[in-house]
What we know:
Blueprint: E1 2-8, E2 15-18, E3 30-35, E4 38-51, E5 63-66, H1 69-96, E6 101-107, E7 113-119, H2 127-137, E8 140-145, H3 148-155, H4 166-169, H5 179-184, H6 191-194, H7 204-217, H8 253-257, H9 260-281, H10 289-296, H11 342-379, H12 389-394
Parallel strand pairs: 7-8
Antiparallel strand pairs: 1-2, 1-4, 3-4, 3-5, 6-7
Helix pairs in contact: 1-2, 9-10
Amino acid sequence: MVRVVGVRFKKAGKIYYFDPADHPVSVGCKVIVETARGLEYGDVAIGPKYVPEEEVVQPLRPVIRVATEADALQAQMNKAKEREAFAIALERIEAHGLDMNLVDVEYTFDGSKIIFSFTAEGRVDFRELVRDLASIFRTRIEMRQIGVRDEAKLIGGIGPCGRILCCTSFLGEFAPVSIRMAKDQNLALNPSKISGLCGRLMCCLRFEQDTYEAAKQDPSLAPGYVPPVVPPEEEVAEPEPEPTLASGWLKTAAEILGTEEEVGGRLGRAVAERNAALSEAQPDGPVTASAGVALDLGTRPPRAQEAPEPAPAADGLAEGSGAHGEPDGLPEGTPAPKRRSGRRRRRKASARAQENGSQEVRAQETRGQETKAGGEAASTPAAPKKRSGRNRRFRQPKRRPRAE
């Protein structure tokens, strides 16, 4: 670990580490330090602290002293000289006809070097200009070409948000910004909307990129996140149990019909009432208990014995015929009509049925053809009937009767 202090030489400039040694320095204190360009006058931005050696750029230069009033007066005089040098440099650039834009002029604290910062479209041959400026200022001249971002940082301005440019107010170093950041943040890819005064992508896209990357992993971290409304849990009604005898929903047979004694009593009363009704209907003969019970149970009483039906006569003999097959009431000697056997009758009946069926099928086919022909005729209008030429030629006109 190394004990260092952070010193800044310009507003919103880069912070450099120096060895504080034994000087009592604190944040905001003015100090004189040794740099590669010589002695510099700067402000302490970071107080004394310990940092790993990997973060320190070697060699670590020391703090020369804490700035005095004379040092502060020298710094103010250098600022005045810078304004004069800026005007002279503009005049000489125009005289040499160089295509370059002068941005800033900086004097070192001891006045040993003047640094001219400019922007240009390409490479510029400024060797004659350097000789001219060196003969005027009698000191070392350094020409430094910078980019458009550094130009905006040195000049300053107000951004699209209405605030002073970030690079001018607090941004020490420029971080890389890509168009992918604008896509991740769902911004319109319109150059005029996502570009700053320098013409490059706005540095603030980099500031919010970490938030959007975290929001991809956890949406609740996204700006303006509104948690979804969770509907209240509905109480699920338990299904009703199926009716069983144990649950008491169904009535038992005893509850519907009654006890055995009640059923027997109702049955006996019904039998007695039915027997009384039958006795009134048949006064001659008493009704037995078996008949009454049979009627009460919904069955028919036994019929009176009827005469058996006569058996069918044999083939070839008519009913009521004599022993020789002669019908009763016919005079003797009259031959009895012949009766066809059952097999022959059935055979002829089957033939007649088949013939009737075939005739019906032919009739249905004929009706179908007529219907089809009628439909075609209905769909296609009939052509008018043409008279033959012979009829037209020999047709006699009607003669009117002569008036007598």
